[in-house]
Amino acid sequence: MGVDFDILKAAERVNKQRIEKFFEKVRQALWVIKGKRVAVLGLAFKANTDDIRFSPALEVVRELLRQGAQVQASDPEAISRSKTLYPDVAYHEDPYDALQGAEAALVCTEWDVFRDLDWERAGKLMARRLVIDGRNLYSPARMRELGFEYYSFGRE
User: Does pTM surpass 0.70?
Assistant: First the structure.
């Protein structure tokens, strides 16, 4: 048909690189992923939907599982759809339950429920105060003030 898909291919390449950069931050922070309990906050492609098609969060989940992590995930809408793809993940409606005992919290979707988390409470539940924020929802200064190792994108 003569349609040039270079722009779509470039967008796909950028999205793939973003996931790789995200996971590189995970690797740098945790070193060894095998056996670590990791909370994934957000599974949907974007907030306010249960759509998981092309969701970067699911790519992160896949890689965590491949490397032997114990994944605990929370999402207000996309749990039932995600369960069919990744039945080995522990799913939690309540994000605080997903954070229980976690050595890292990975923020993958910008849901308001995650934006409004009480990180003082969350920090008491977690085994390690480590947040890798793929959506830049939080103030780096505030998270560090609360005693978290905090990583975001394009702000450090």
Answer: yes
